[in-house]
Amino acid sequence: MGQIFGVRHLSPAGAWHLERFLDRIDPSAVLIEGPADASPLIEHFLHKKTRPPIAILAFTQAPPIRSLLFPLAPYSPEWIAATWAARRKRLVRFFDLPAQIFLGLETGETDEGQPGPSDDSRRYLADPWQEIARITGDPHHEVWWERQFEQLQEEGSYRDALLEFGQGLRSLREESGHERRETLLREAFMRRELRRVVAEGHAPERIVAVCGAYHASALRWELPPLDDGSLRALPSPPVRLALMPYSYRRLSSQSGYGAGNHAPAYYQALWEETQQGTTGRLPARYLAAVAARLRLAGKVRSSAEVIEAVRLATALAALHQDRSAPTLAELRDAAISLLGQGDAALLAPHLEAVEIGDAIGALPPGVAQTAIQEDFHRWILDLGLSGYLVDKEQVVKGRADKGQALDLREDSSAKNRATALRDRRVALFFRRLDALDIGFARDHTGDEDRRQNTFKERWIARWTPDCEVALAERSLLGDTIETAAARRLSERLAAATDVGQAAALVNQGRRCALPSVFEEALRLVQSLATLDGSFPSVASAARELAYLARFREVDEVDTTSVRPLVRQLFLRAVLLVGAAARCNDDASVEVGRAMADVHAVALLDDLDEPLPTDRWAAALHALADDDLAHPFPAGVACALLLEAGAIQDQLLDQRIARRVSPGMEPARCAGFFEGLASRNRMALLARRQLWRSMNEFLEALGDEAFLRALPGLRRAFSSFEDGEARRIVEILAEAWGAHPADLALAVETRIDEDEARQLQHDLADLADLDL
Amino acid sequence: MASKKEAVKPAEGALSGASSQALREPAEVLFQRELEALAAADSFERPPGWKLSPRAVLAYVCGKEFKGVHPTAKYIGHERLVEIAVATLATDRALLLLGEPGTAKSWLSEHLSAAISGTSQLLVQGTAGTTEEQIRYSWNYAMLLAEGPSPRALVPSPVHRCMAEGKLLRFEEITRCPSEVQDALITLLSEKVLAIPELNSHVQAQRGFNLIATANTRDRGVNDMSAALKRRFNIVVLPVPSDLATEISIVEKRVADLGQALRLPASPPGRQAVEKIVQIFQELRRGQTLDGKQKIKSPSGVLSTAEAISVLGNGMALAGHFGDGTVSERDLAAGLLGAVVKEDARDEEVFVEYLENVLKKRGGEWTGLYKACKELV
What we know:
A: 4-stranded parallel sheet, 12 strands, 57% helix, B: alpha/beta, Rossmann fold, 5-stranded parallel sheet, two-stranded antiparallel ribbon
């Protein structure tokens, strides 16, 4: 039944043997295993701007979205067959089950429950070779495969060997009933297509059919083809097919089955060497490349070490099989032992660069763009952003700050509504791209801008080929940027487990002007708020939503429904704070920050109904008096009460004296002081009692205790500004009876190198003290 | 897992073969029968000077079936690392085994040299006091004064002998030697010649000569090797066993061996005791419970597999001499505390925390061990 050539996807040796086979047979028709309805796409393969890796993408247009991704690298046998035939103007077709039918098939039960989009690709390109590795006992089937098949053998041997293995595998492999039916259906369809080509007048001996080795033995005349009736009976949902540029990095991330390749750049090198007629140079090429990368990173590696590494790799390979050339596994081990001097972690990034590489495919403009890519370019054109589609960082121009920032308000002087809202729409576009993780533009709005107003945003744009790849991949999520962003955020919502994450998504839904996401997220916040017992996440949710409630005009989303939620979260935070403050050192910083968040919410006065701020104050008082609480949150509680004017001087002095006094554990005193000093310093400076207590406490410390208090104290004091420090000096001078100017001089004189070295020596044990 | 204590220099008798009173027989004596059987079955090509082919060496060390011979496993775990080590020696490169204390560096080097050269006793035990003479040669001074420099007055070092006889040299704890002593190896390894200017002659290394050095990663800084010397080695880092099953099988096997060698009047601890000790070691080492649910403080010292073995061995000794011959939880507790709290008193707090927060909560079959430990702290 034609000349069947069994291959494995992404196999350089397969590509090499296949090319020679094609030259020898000189077929008039070439059939390739791949979705039959993707055949029209082959014409783009030869375009001078097409450069693999590329991928054929098929996806259903109606939910549930199912998709199929078929990547092609320069060393894919399928790619070689298609370009060989297209170049010679021979008939060339994909002849496996059309994607339209495949994606309409019932999926079998999988272990993970619901089959996701990638499972369809997995089924389509399934790699039965894994099973053999299990039998031969190799550590990984790739190792076995590379040793068995990628090392060049004489012409002709490859095809026979693979045919035999495919046959053997069929008897070994345990397919589920479902898998078996699917395999048989695909093979029946392939036979049907083969017969069709023969009926079209091609001599069977001049037809070459390229398929997975597993199927090769099933393409025989004796077996029946798929008949018209059965074909018509199969469901076929509407499916969109497109080509997309692909990258080696993505290819490697999908290894483990036929659609991926764990080391594309290495296989590319293998392919290039194969074309020279021998793979003997490959070990030297690989190891020299690793050494070169190490040298670039400043690590000296001599050629002698590369030579020794090649020798070690060869010896390792020989341990397994005489006259076998090293595979990637041996090369990697040799590289680690010699070039990495045993340190695998040091070498990891360099090995990755050499094995995976950063090659990115390309397609001619306009060819086979997915709907989302078209939508993207429509936006770009509409908003006049074409100038940013270059691989260079540029600040996106807008109306604010002399063109350096976007002004989200409506421009009342604009001629029409579209231009009046241009900046806002640009920001919206970027936010949605951001939600989709397409690294085109990144938010560069500084904290200063955010504090001052809510209408100014800064963005920096940079277009890389990877953006295009990512964009094309997002077509699985929807046909437009908007629908895709909404779907992506819904997916994140489904995965959100704490209320802080959910609240962040509420805000993101608002920022991306996606009302459906916004409301879905709000509902989630509501349900999680009652369950989530984590104070920091409740506090950050409260803060996030309270902040959001302030936007009334700028965005399209209605925020009134947020306010009752803010109240609910606030109350919950108040109830949780006491228990949360009884925490360890690691958590205390986060608790302190979360307290500041809650306090910020308490200070907002533009909510319709006032918040129960008296409860908050009471909770802070209780916390400040709680001896089991970590001293840092206790300090923060005092600071917040002081700021709100809700603590009497006498009470504060009493608390300070109790927490900061000789005999207390020094690190705890320092922690309390650090919390106290975290805000409203001027008010603190006015309190002599505080400084007197500090002074007494410090003077009473022994050397060792002082060292333990030092990290906390240093953290607290380092945030004081020069002017504030001078005030402290004055207060201390008074306490010590010294002249303020002398003391200030002593404090402000920079320490010289000897002193610095001495300090470094004395304090060497304090890891968290950064001098 | 050979600890330093075990690598005691054998009595002179051990070299000649049979001395049943030796505290610990060298590998080539202990496993003489296996080595002979392998040599007889081995039809692969042997590198010059090797007693076995690389594949047979691999089979011997990893305990793989080899042409009908079933050697016991000496090194359990990363077979690939042994492959790299054997391939290194076969390519005539020196081998450096790096690793934390107690990761079977010396053990592996002993078995490799026993299998390859037929002797594991040509070794230099590196210390801060190792001198260059110990690496090159020294003199019998009485004879030197009487006759002047002559080959008879020369006392060859292990290095000298290995070169002349084409054997493997073991260099233990190389980073503990002063750097100038280490540097004596540089030209020796590249030229494969040991010059003896006093006699106006030299020793040429015979085929089969090579070097296996071991060094601790913990004390790398003591006398870090120079780049020039490092370059002459292929470096293999031996890891701490990462999964429970591997470590359990290592410990179980070695504890049983230990009991036999020391003739302890106790039966080896049960599988359950081994599992518990290994699990405690792994959890403290990783800083979290095995199920990953709870974070634990790690003690400052190293917790090697060798120490897990010695905890159990110690338990056997206690049970045998002072108990009823079966290892009880009380026999284990003392050793366990000693292994965890070594250098820093604060490690005791770590251990108490672990006891209270993890072991106590587990209850059930852990209760006995928990109580036994609690009595001690």
